[in-house]
Amino acid sequence: MIYQQLINGLMLGASYSLIAIGYTLIFGVLKLLYFAHGEVFMVGAFAGLFLVIYGGANIYVALAGAMIICALLGALAFYVSVRPVSKDHPLAPLISTIGLTIVLQNLAVYIFGGQQVAFPETIQQSLYTIGPITISFVQIFILAVAVALMLALWLFIEHTRMGRAIRATAENHETAALLGVDVNRVVLVTFMLGSGIAGIAGVLDGIKNSGISPFMGLGAAVKGLIVMLLGGLGNVPGAMVAGLLLGMIEILSAAYIGTTERDFFSFAILILILLYRPTGLFGTRTTE
Amino acid sequence: MLDWLMDGYTQSLLVFGGINVIAAYSFYVPYKTGQVSLGQAGFMAVGAYGSAILTQKFGVPFAVALLSGGLIAGVIGVVVGFPALRIKGIYLLLLTLGFSEIISVIALSWDYVGGAQGFRNISFNPFTLEYVIAIIVVLLFFFARLERSSLGRAMDSIHQDETAAEVMGIDVVRIKLLSFGLGAAIAGLAGALYAHQATYMDSTTFNIMLSVEILVFVVVGGGTTFWGPLLGAAVLSAIPELLRAMRDWLELVPVEWTDFYPANRIYDFLHDFLDFENAKRLIAYGIILIIMMIVRPDGLLTRDSLRRLRLPRWKARHA
């Protein structure tokens, strides 16, 4: 029983991690709260659904397609709601991205209706039993994709020129610009990268829950924010670990304490972290 | 009591619009010292549940319950305000958001207030509109005085530069706590009024999107002057109703008047445009928010635009 719950926690945590990575990347380079990220995740799920049903795509094509669509959406979000808005007014970018959130959510309601839509079965449903654990192929698939994605991202951030430019920009815009980094391009790439990952997370969520709705973005956004904070703002590996941790905590508290208390724990953790470790569990460069 | 003036539907529209105005002011007070809260819906929930428990379970009269709701929310506001002193920006946003979510989890799991079934059969208060108008008038009077008082100027200076304000001898801690608690108390009043107008609420009534909406009211109206929240909340609450009313007027136009070539096209276009269903209307709303923030990040009303209006009284005082 406990192993089963741990697997479930891992599954939930993996999707939290993927959303939080995008958040933390974007927060890292821009230092602003970008509200529309949860809706990008939702659009990713619907893009995957659309590709599978109308494009006849298999799951790999759907994942890649959702990633590309969301990366483009991220670029669009940057040019529409972040770039033109003055940074001198701290609330202005928050409001404009809230505006984008409302637009995307209701566009999805307008096109797909307000109800939950069933996600088509695209993966075989076989079950494997390893010792005390029963794990389905779907679960293995989701975990494998999530882990591979995180690994690839880590390698990208740590070992490529672009990754180094992202880290430099997160450290300090002016210094990075003086050292020859094209800051605007880096911010754009960061948006596309974070949004693409959120798109994949959306499709994975669709496979896991076998249903998606236009309103799935808000909850994901809030949990993503908690995970970002837990891992330390702008700290990518921190977000990965913190996501898994929060997923575990939620599943275990739901299983052994009660399902209504589940959210209580995540928000209580949020507040405790804010009060006692505002730099997150694993530390980060700066706090306000 | 205002029945001789308007029908019940108009009254309830005005009540909910007025509650939005009060909620916007609840955000404005802590914002005046630079504290941005995404938890005002949580304080509204405290006031709403607190006052509804008093009227329903203890038979307390509405006026007393209303004030107690505000008071309870204010006390909790000061309690939340203490940790809020230490943090800023995104951290404060998340702290207040987390507080608000915890309140909603408590409302969901506490069976005494209905739990998942929601709080039902709250007594309807027929005089809510009068209360709403009275509270808004008092708030406006209060802010008009505050603007020119030493406390108001101290709050502005904390907003601009906390360290400088402290160096100038301003008691930053006390003023920030006071403004956070006062904001929470105003939110509590708004929640109590809401509960006794809607007569039903559950754990999702006061959700994150409501807090976001309250924030939007103030930023769109203009957060640098106390007229901003009034304007933002009033305009944004009125727009959907105005569009609906315009469509209804359009339908009163006799068919013969528009039954020839260019007019019928124009009529159909206008009718389609105004016949917003919810999703389409919200898409337009979101686009307006984005454009607003690009064009006027300070909101519709700023101190400068007020000065440009050149109110005679101002001139006299400045002379």
What does this structure look like?
The complex is a heterodimer of chains A (288) and B (319). Chain A has eleven helices and four strands. Chain A is mainly alpha-helical. A two-stranded antiparallel sheet of chain A has the order 1-4. A two-stranded antiparallel ribbon of chain A has the order 2-3. Chain B is globular, with a radius of gyration of 21 Å. The mean pLDDT of chain B is 85. Chain B has helices at 8-32, 40-58, 62-86, 89-109, 128-147, 150-160, 162-167, 172-198, 208-221, 227-252, 261-274, 278-295, 303-308, 312-318. Chain B has 319 residues and is mainly alpha-helical. In chain B, helix 6 crosses helix 8 (172-198) and helix 10 (227-252) crosses helix 11. Helices cover 75% and strands 0% of the residues of chain B. Chains A and B meet through helix 4, helix 9 and helix 11 of A and helix 4, helix 9 and helix 12 of B.
Provide the residue-averaged pLDDT of chain B: 85
- Main sheet attributes: strand count, strand direction, barrel closure of chain A: 2 strands, antiparallel
Q: How much strand of chain A?
A: under 5%
* Rounded Rg of chain B: 21 Å
**Number of helix segments of chain A?**
11
Order the strands across the largest sheet of chain A as they lie in space: 1-4
Task: Let me know the largest β-sheet of chain B.
Answer: none
Contiguous low-pLDDT stretches of chain A (5 residues minimum) are: none
- How far the N terminus sits from the C terminus of chain B, by CA atoms, comes to 44 Å
General form of chain B: globular
